[in-house]
Amino acid sequence: MRQAELITVFSALPSFARKRGFMLKYIVKRVILMFFTLFVITTVCFLLIRILPRQLPTDKVQAAAIAARWKALGYDEPLLLQYGIYLRNIITKWDFGTSWYIAFRQPAWDVLTERLLPTILVNLYSLLFSIPLGILLGIYAAVKKNKWQDSLISTMVMLFVSIPSYVYAFLVQYIFYSKLGWLPLQIYSLADAGGSWVSSKMFYSMLAPVLALSFGEIAGLCRFTRAELSETLTSDYMLLARTKGLTRAQATTRHALKNAMVPILPMIISSFIGILGGSMIIEQIFAVPGVGQLYLKSISLFDYDIFMMDSVFYTFIGLLAGIVVDISYGFIDPRIRMGEQ
């Protein structure tokens, strides 16, 4: 390597280290803030759920076991002392409590992890279907801006964005089950699907909730992609690219799409993180034994520890998605430096 090149490389090292330092400082600050927010929300949820009257089962044996367990955990103590015991068990034993209604005497953490796979599969299939379709429709609408194709796609997008997901669920059940008979009303149980969540039979039964989740995701991605790409196509550097001899298609693929994807990719990353959270209403309608349905059951059955486990889980996933999205901007677009003044 020549001397001039060595000087250039070594002169860039302090700037690179400084930028890395800013990014690291920003990440540490956001992680600390995330755990503080998680602590505050967990505290509020715990105090509110403990204020509610206790619900004991009618079976005397179960009721006695639950009462003894609550007394052993100190749940007869004042609220703040109960919360201190709850946090101590989590930190020292990774013990989030026990389910007494949904899964009798099973640890809350095990109950949650057992239901993660169905939630992940349904939402993952939905994203793999909706992301490419939504982006392609958005690109097509931006390229055909102010033409009838754009008007048609924009009208459909506004319609699909405005309709709640549970409406799509009922429409899918009515059309594909009641009228056409192509899809089952609800997903198969594990026994009916051959004992495996990852099988062709289970995938077939999951098509209905996948379709119900996809409509809104496709519409949102299409609208966002069209807005970003339309703005990029009218920028000055696109005019410069055309004057240099590039065709419209070449300028769009080489320059416009690359810059338009900067705000779109973090949105996609956030969607993939969000698949852990699931969809409460869709899982309830299609009988998906996932995290969303577990959360609704914990509320209706007053299964306190399961409710707290789900609340902590949902809060953590939401906060983590926000941090990953913010950090990804700095990696995707080198012009953005998080934490740098």
TrEMBL record:
PROSITE patterns attached to this UniProt entry: ABC_TM1 (PS50928)
Keywords of the record, alphabetical order, are:
Cell membrane, Membrane, Transmembrane, Transmembrane helix, Transport
Question: What is the predominant subcellular site recorded for this chain?
Answer: membrane
* Top-level division of the source organism's lineage: Bacteria
Q: Which Pfam families match?
A: BPD_transp_1, BPD_transp_1_N
Q: Does the keyword Protein biosynthesis apply?
A: no
Q: What residue ranges are annotated as transmembrane?
A: 27-49, 120-143, 155-176, 202-222, 264-291, 311-332
Give the location in the cell. Cell membrane
**Cited SUPFAM superfamilies:** MetI-like (SSF161098)
Q: Which InterPro entries match?
A: BPD_transp_1_N, MetI-like, MetI-like_sf
What does the record say about its membrane topology? Multi-pass membrane protein
The Gene Ontology CC terms held by the record are: plasma membrane
Q: Where is the ABC transmembrane type-1 domain?
A: 116-325
GO:BP terms for this protein?
transmembrane transport
The UniProt record lists the keyword Amino-acid biosynthesis: no
What family does the Swiss-Prot or TrEMBL record give for this protein? Answer: Belongs to the binding-protein-dependent transport system permease family.
PANTHER family under this entry? INNER MEMBRANE ABC TRANSPORTER, OLIGOPEPTIDE TRANSPORT SYSTEM PERMEASE PROTEIN APPB
Give the protein's recorded name. Answer: ABC transmembrane type-1 domain-containing protein
